[in-house]
Amino acid sequence: MYFQDLQKYSRRAFLRRSGQLALTGSALPVALNLAAIGEAAAFNATDYKALVCVFMYGGNDYANTVVPYDDANYNAYQNIRSNIALSKASLSSMILQPNTPLAGGRQYALHPAMPAMAGLFNSGKAAVQMNVGPLVVPLTRVQYAGSNRTLYPLPPQLFSHNDQQSVWQSSSPEGSTVGWGGNIGDLALSGNGSSLFTCISVSGNAVYLSGDNALQYQVSTGGAVGISGIKGIVYGSSAVQNALATISQQPRSHILENIYTTTTARSVGAESLVTSALAGVSVGTSFTAGNPLADQLKMVARLIAARTALGTKRQVFFVSIGGFDLHDNLLPQHPALLGRVSDAMASFYNATVELGVADKVTAFTASDFGRTLTSNGDGSDHGWGSHHFVVGGAVKGKAFYGKPPPISVGNTAAPEDQWHVGQGRLLPSTSVDQYAATLAKWFGVGPTELAGILPNLNHFGSADYPIDLGFMA
């Protein structure tokens, strides 16, 4: 069942991408980022909307990010985490105050380094999706531990960094060429005046933004990236520079050579258009200096400000921050990372308010996986499910979504032991496909189009695993 679905999805992507690469030939590297050709749009956008994926590479430690605060659950957390638990006193100013209190008196607080994110949550501009991670089908702990992989398949290569990064972004392990962000972009290509700027990464190559037709356009935190041989003096000679610019862009009679030069000319034109568009806008919101994630999100804000000049009505962005693989030094290193995420996402939200598009832009976090609830002595090890943030004016904030997991590491038949698979590695109670479908639906993707974007989605849809998780207005 699962493998047939995945093969169908992968084969379709392979055939379309193979056709694109055949047309592109051995062109300049930027060609692959600029050769997007739109088909029919799934919707005709009359307004503007954008999705922004904030990926935390390395596997964020969920238990020290969204921390149990009520006495019973904090005490369990402290007993299990021992030397890597945060003190309750440090959490007192970071308590999250949902509109609807959680059952059983449960409370959570954010890490002390995340006051900006706590402020977004408590002001209704952010929500927490609890215990989300890759799932092929809904699973219980018994099914996970069993051997029937035909009925109860597992995500491929669990607990592996590269594979789980790819599974989160594309539903397939390392080597995948198509991501769900790119597939969302596929549906918007012809609705944009320039399809080249539908999917934009400010963090290098990411499979998340590669669609069947949409190919990511990459920029730096300083703006568009030009072809150095054309933008700068070559071998100290402007004559060589001009000759290279002419040769690499002039029409040719040979079909492959002509595609090469056409693609190069498109690259040069796109760089010029982005540079001009960015020069015509300004973002006054302050972003923290020395924060690489803030620099990336500031560029996203500038590109959104330039949306009219770029001819875009629907965009998908990707930014990232690394360093979360904290098997060691969790307590000294985790705060700075979470502080950067918190400050950058809050500044970005403020920028969308300044630009008048706060309810048109939604940012959300993702990561390889969560980590163990247990301490390994100085940190935590690879896990599975994790908690994530969704931020924006259209988010039904000041709320938790999904099932709060019990604070447990036991191996019994008791209910509290059913939502982890050992050492407090959370067994996801919400799939990435559900998370993505909720975002895609808000973006404008129709119900019949969701299955083409998310190959495992047809295995969900029950009351316990709804397609729409409810966190978007």
The domain count comes to 1
Q: What form results from the Cα inertia axes?
A: globular
The oligomeric status of these chains comes to: single chain
Sequence stretches where pLDDT stays below 50 over 5 or more residues: 6-42
Q: Gap between N and C termini, in Å?
A: 33 Å
Strand content: 5-15%
Order of helices and strands: HHEEHHEHEHHHEEEHHHHHEHEEEEHH
Write down the overall mean pLDDT.
89
- Decide which structural class fits the backbone: alpha/beta
* Share in helix: 25-40%
Number of strands: 12
- Our count of helices gives 16
State the major sheet: 10 strands, mixed
Radius of gyration: 23 Å
Pfam families: DUF1501 (PF07394)
InterPro entries: DUF1501 (IPR010869), TAT_signal (IPR006311)
Brief synopsis:
With 473 residues, the chain is α/β, with parallel strands linked by helices.
Structural notes for this entry:
It is a single chain. This protein has one domain (2-459). The strands form 2 sheets. Strands 1, 4, 5, 6, 7, 8, 9, 10, 11 and 12 form a 10-stranded mixed β-sheet that branches. The chain has a two-stranded antiparallel sheet with strand order 2-3. It contains 16 helices and 12 strands. 37% of the residues lie in helices and 12% in strands. The chain is an alpha/beta fold and 473 residues long. The radius of gyration is 23 Å and the shape is globular. The longest helix has 25 residues, at 255-279. It holds the Pfam family DUF1501. InterPro entries: DUF1501, TAT_signal.
